Amino acid sequence: MAVAYLCLGSNIGDKVGYLQQAVKLLTESGMVTVVRTSALYETEPWGNKDLDWFVNGVIEVKTKLSPRELLELCKNTEIRMGRKPSEKKYEARIIDIDILFYGDLIIDEPDLKIPHEHLHERAFAIVPLLELIPDYEHPKYKKSLLQLHEDLETLDDVFLYGTRVDI
């Protein structure tokens, strides 16, 4: 079984409820087992500061799915929750599920990039990962998450929300 880290985010309506629903749907698929979760964080939107703030968290999962199958499960979960496919990169969303890491794999395909191609730039993903795997070395950049956090050029606002996603 592979270990993967998923970042979940929502900036519409019952943000925490949507994150909980996403974890429930992922688990009920029988394809992933949630091992542990980070706390949740209220975070400044990345890429479009005019949007409402997000609630973000990271979950550690074990899975027998391939990286591509895990991506399909994440996208299908988003669609089941009501997210509509869009051409826009940075917009309000009920749920967003991104694969941050899948073991130590490096995948660079047009629609699948692992580690996530912008992880090293995003405090909203690095901060929750620091709770779970602070010493983990990014397979591409060969730096720990703690070092990546220290290297951030801009620290987006990331505030502890004070709860965890139920598993």
Summary, kept brief:
The chain has 167 residues and is α+β, with helices and mostly antiparallel strands. 27% of the residues lie in helices and 30% in strands. The longest helix is centred in the first third of the chain and has 14 residues, at 15-28.
Mean pLDDT: 92
Runs in which pLDDT lies below 50 for 5 or more consecutive residues are none
* Oligomeric description of these chains: single chain
Just name the CATH architecture: 2-Layer Sandwich
Overall, the morphology is globular
- Beta-strand proportion: 25-35%
Taking all Cα atoms into account, the compactness measure Rg is 15 Å
Strand and helix order: EHEEEHEEEHHE
Supply the number of helical segments: 4
Could you tell me the CATH topology label: Alpha-Beta Plaits
Q: Estimate nothing, just give the exact number of structural domains.
A: 1
What is the name of the CATH superfamily?
7,8-Dihydro-6-hydroxymethylpterin-pyrophosphokinase HPPK
Number of strands: 8
Distance from first to last alpha carbon: 19 Å
Percentage of residues assigned to helices: 25-40%
- What is the CATH class name? Alpha Beta
Major beta-sheet overview: 6 strands, antiparallel
Overview of this protein structure:
This protein is α+β, with helices and mostly antiparallel strands and 167 residues long. The chain has one domain: Alpha-Beta Plaits (2-Layer Sandwich). Helix content is 27%, strand content 30%. The chain has four helices and eight strands, in the order βαβββαβββααβ. The protein has helices spanning 15-28, 67-80, 123-132, 145-151; strands at residues 2-10, 32-37, 39-43, 54-63, 96-102, 107-109, 112-114, 158-164. Strands 1, 2, 3, 4, 5 and 8 form a six-stranded antiparallel β-sheet that branches. Strands 6-7 form a two-stranded antiparallel ribbon. Strand 6 (107-109) and strand 7 form a beta hairpin. The radius of gyration is 15 Å and the shape is globular. The two termini are 19 Å apart.
